[in-house]
Prior knowledge:
Elements (H helix, E strand, L loop, with lengths): L1 E7 L4 E7 L5 E5 L6 H10 L3 E6 L11 H8 L2 E5 L9 E3 L5 E3 L2 E7 L8 E5 L2 E5 L17 H11 L8 E4 L9 E2 H7 L9 H9 L9 H9 L26
Parallel strand pairs: 3-4, 4-5, 5-6, 10-11
Antiparallel strand pairs: 1-2, 2-3, 7-8, 8-9, 9-10, 11-12
The structure holds fe (iii) ion (FE).
The site of fe (iii) ion has 6 residues, from loops.
Amino acid sequence: MIFRQLFEPISSTYTYLLGCETTGQAVLVDTVLPTWQRDLAEINALGLKLAYTIDTHIHADHISAARKLKQETGSRIAHPALDRLPCADEALEDGRPFTFGGVTIMPLHTPGHTDNHFAYVVDRHVLTGDALLIDGCGRTDFQNGDAPTLYRSVHHKLFTLPDDTLVYPAHDYQGRHVSSIAQEKTRNPRLGGDKPLAEFVEIMANLNLAYPKFIDYAVPGNRLCGECPPGVPDTLQQYCEQIAESHQG
Ligand code: FE
């Protein structure tokens, strides 16, 4: 399998490119609208063809490029069935393998950050979305998030993967790229080292995070598979505009 980690700096999102060497088909996981051209250029440079875009969840901090990439390339939109998006072409379900070319992705329902959040296991990699970040996890105070539910998703699903599974999160705000299940199980300050549920709930209840500044636009936009909704203020226009260059993750 061909694997690339790409970084979008406005929302600090990692987009993952998965490619099948035998058929030349590619998938992009968690695309970001401003970097759709960069991602496509990467696929073209590798001699691949985009077959699907997939998201881990309805993002609140950026607009997906799924719809735009479908318009430009004819790629299909695969999304967790639980979200019931009318714009999705393929519905992903917990434990039902999803195959493109010769590559099989195992979708895992990992609620808690959002109720319908999924992680994807592929070839000893796990794309953890916002359920499990390196030394952290996604917030649990919006989009039907719930701390005990996230704790169970991480402990019962992600931490039961083989220790050497590589952890690739949807975001990192400090330039870290990859971790492993063993490392997060041992060292994650919120969820690792046999941290009890009550302590995790306490940590999450006391994060005092600001209201997500783009959520009121991102969520409706992503329910349309990535459309910038009307009325986005000038200060947030950068989330809708296209950028040609960005740092490679
Ligand atoms: Fe998120």
